[in-house]
Please model this.
Amino acid sequence: MTDTYVVDPRTLKPIGIFGGTFDPIHFGHLRLAEEMAESLALDHVRFIPAGTPPHRSRPRTDAPHRLAMVKIATANNPRFVVDQREVELPHLSYTVDTLHSLRSELGDDQPLCLLLGADAFLGLSSWHEWQALFKLAHITIAHRPGFPQSTWKDAMPDTLRDEIETRMANPEDLATCAAGLIVTRPITALDISATHIRDTLRAGRNPRYLLPDAVLDYIHAHQLYLPETA
Ligand code: ATP
Ligand code: MG
Model:
């Protein structure tokens, strides 16, 4: 008789994948990562700053600065990891391609949780090959002020609503399979956005207490988001 060795997928703790422009990173991002790591029992969270498009459709701080600010903000948290694969590409990366790249490194059994704020989730059905995302990762949604869950059903297309109805699960289910579930979580409501921080700096005002002091020091040292001169 031969022994059968069955790998228990529950021994693999899910990894959080957190993409964004992080222009700049702020406490809304950091609390999302911290609270989702805690409530979803994530092994770690990978922050993946988006690259800079070669032909810019809109102003965006150069990727090396955004990456440096993410590194500074996450440096003292051992559960936060910075992943610079998108920044190193000469073109913008679709999330589906980034997840393929992570899968090929981490293997087919590793549960991956794509972390999204509610606003990002509501736009999901416009993403490149969005339905393929469910084959590659779980989708985990954090609440965000301005996007209350009571309004999600009205704000999303039918295709996305159908996915939610069939895939909705509980946090403890995330470790039992590698991809395909949807979990939503309330987090501390922080009405902070990078847009507001950029506007505040450009208006010559101080955005302190919305983002880590060390990130603000970096912004001043590198003269980012300077006030427009009249
Ligand atoms: P911008 O104003 O430039 O769009 P942002 O503050 O929305 O910046 P992003 O880099 O666009 O930050 O967001 C990255 C991810 O973090 C997205 O999934 C977004 O939904 C989420 N997020 C950002 N800020 C918050 C917040 N205050 N609460 C919950 N989720 C957030
Ligand atoms: Mg945003």
